[in-house]
Amino acid sequence: MGNTVSVSELESYFGEDYIHFGDVVNPPETSDRDAGVIWTHLSLEQGSSVLELGCGYGRIANRLGEKGARVVGLDISPILLAKAEADAAERNVNVEYLLGDMRSLPWRDRFDAAFLWYTTFGYFDDVDNETVLCEVASSLRKGGRLLIDHANRFAFLRHKSPIYIVQRNDDLRIDIMSNDVLSDRRNLERIIVRDGCVRRTHLSFRQYGFSEYVRMLRSAGFGAVEAYGEEGGAFTSDSSRLMVVAYK
Ligand SMILES: C[S@@+](CC[C@H](N)C(=O)[O-])C[C@H]1O[C@@H](n2cnc3c(N)ncnc32)[C@H](O)[C@@H]1O
Fold it and tell me: What range(s) does the Methyltransferase domain occupy (predicted)?
């Protein structure tokens, strides 16, 4: 497997099957809690302008909209965006959804805050991953905040079984994970067994450590960079998540 994920691989991985198992992996109460953590750690207020990169089917963006933020969600998957828009309409919330690639953003000095939630960073090679950070920096106004939530690779290596299964009724989503020690990437082979059919997709992402985030974010134009664990607690080697908050 290479050191980047192509657009067609992303579209295949983040398609209808991703939505089908979404609420099993992240039930509504988890999404409520996630939205609260993001609200607090980005110091959001009523009327704050917020950009979610890789917003998926809008489980976070729509909740932040309900709390009173002015939210723009960008994603590369048309299928997930259609679901995000339908959910926004159902909730009667106004969120702007855009089809696009986070490696090239149209805004300059526009947002109070931006975030990439739930392992949405690192799909590409180092140059493109750093391009994403530069594009976010340009999109934020001076003093704007960026939050990136990712798996903590120390905890991942220690605790995670290489096979992770999610079940919804008779349907199964089976993830077979491996680490590439030469590229610091995690590879994920996904097998979907649904309605009697079997489909395979895969994803791979770079597992950056906190000091690497600091170097990349400083070079993209950010100043202070902070580390938190899951739900905003202290970041330790046992934390399941690494949540990075950077200030422009
Ligand atoms: C792991 S999902 C997370 C979705 C959402 N943040 C959540 O918490 O439910 C990653 C998302 O990033 C999107 N994505 C991947 N590469 C992208 C790119 N280059 N530009 C924009 N979105 C991208 C995928 O389509 C997917 O919706």
Answer: 50-144
Q: The domain spanning residue 238 has which CATH number?
A: 3.40.50.150
17 and 59 co-located in one domain: yes
Range of the domain at 132: 7-151+209-247
Number of domains present in the structure of the chain: 2
Nearest residue (CA) to ligand 1, atom 9: 56
Q: Are residues 54 and 113 in the same domain?
A: yes
Give 111-159 pLDDT, tens digit per residue. 999 999 999 999 999 999 999 999 999 999 999 999 999 999 988 787 7
Q: State whether 81 and 53 are in the same domain.
A: yes
> In angstroms, how far is CA 139 from the centroid of its own chain?
17
33 and 96 in contact (C-beta within 8 Å)?
Answer: no
DSSP-derived secondary structure for 33-99:
HHHHHHHHHTT--TT-EEEEES-TTSTTHHHHHHTT-EEEEEES-HHHHHHHHHHHHHHT---EEEE
The answer to the question of residue 2 being in a domain is no
Q: Give residues with Cβ within 8 angstroms of 224, minimum separation 6.
A: 246, 247
Q: What are 13-26's pLDDT values in tens digits? A: 999 999 999 999 99
Ligand 1 centroid–CA 43 distance in Å is 23
CA 62 to ligand 1 center in whole angstroms: 15
Cα of 111 vs centre of ligand 1, distance in Å, is 19
In the numeric block, the tokens 């590439």 are attached to 180
